[in-house]
Amino acid sequence: MNSNVYTCASILGGDIGKLPIQVYKKRQGGRKRDKNHPVSQILGIRSNPYMSAYTFKELMMVHVVAWGNGYANIEWHTSGQNNGKPKALWPLDPSKTDVHVDNVTGELWYVTTLPSGETRKLKHWDVLHFKSISKSGLKGITPIQVIREEIGAQQSQKKFIGSFYGNGTTTGGILKTPSPLDKPAKDIVRDEWQKVNSGLTNAHRVAILDAGFDYQSIGMPLADAQFIETAKFGISEVAKIYKIPPYKLGLTDMKYSNMENLSLEYVKSTLQPIITNWEQEIDWKLFTESERRVFYSKFNVTSELRGDSKSRSEFYKNMIQLGPFSINKVLELEDEDNIGPLGDKHYMSLNYTTLDILEAYQLLKAGMKSKDEAGEGGDHVEGQGNAVAEQQS
């Protein structure tokens, strides 16, 4: 595998692997996290007896990066209270798994070859399938197909470098003589010159020229800055296909004014489409029809969206003052223990009110309407004005 593609697979696999996939249950007025649901167990703790949830997610993402498709056979509970719910996820070899549509029934099947050599036909609801961009919607296209020509150029470049330096010298040039030489004389001179300039042990020996010979160096293509730029172009092309920021692939000479914004852009443009793909496939395949009305899965990307401590504290302060966050909510986002029931309270500044009450209060304060002039309307205005007064007191 090309080193740049390997790095992209490592980056995306590691990022998807480390992000928690949490299961939520819808309820009136909001949602509640369900840590005991089988889906929560196999995606958050252990995907099968031999793989942690991290290893499974990383492997699936590496398969998507390298082959365009990540497949996993779903093993179901067949008895007990979890009957009909997923028990384990078993990765399938993407190079030996394919998608087929029955021409008669139109039904979708997965055909795979097991390590034992057995060919097995699996129903589509028994396979968790994560895919990259697709032409048919049924099977992903490996990005390597798109950049195969570029990767081939990089591989040829590496072979050239290896071959060039194989002789142990970076010197190249010609020997000039004032008079013509016949072939035997040329062979003797060439052999003597190569004895001095071949191999690492002779790399620094001094060559003595006689009989009017003059050595003229030939400029090295590898010393040309354009060669380095070509190598960088190869990295940037691979990074572009996988939507990976170039600095993650080692292009450190690029200058960034705000790394936090770059990280946020990476989450939004690169990880979020992948996450949405995973969440929709998980919800459709791992929950029963009745469960889909109540349960859903969601990646927790809070850790990826966190800024520095100063930015986070300012954000939390504003969210507490506006009312959406409680103290316990902030502590939860920071992976800290809560402070008990008092930390669940929400706060709101007394300086805030609605526009209609504010207008009524201003009218009452200006004396534009009195109780006798406005009748019932005046009563309404005065009542709203009093409500504001009570708030501010």
From TrEMBL:
Biased composition (Basic and acidic residues): 371-382
Transmembrane segments: none
Start and end residues of each stretch annotated as Disordered: 371-393
NCBIfam families for this protein: portal_HK97
Protein name as catalogued: Phage portal protein
Annotated organism of origin: Paenibacillus profundus
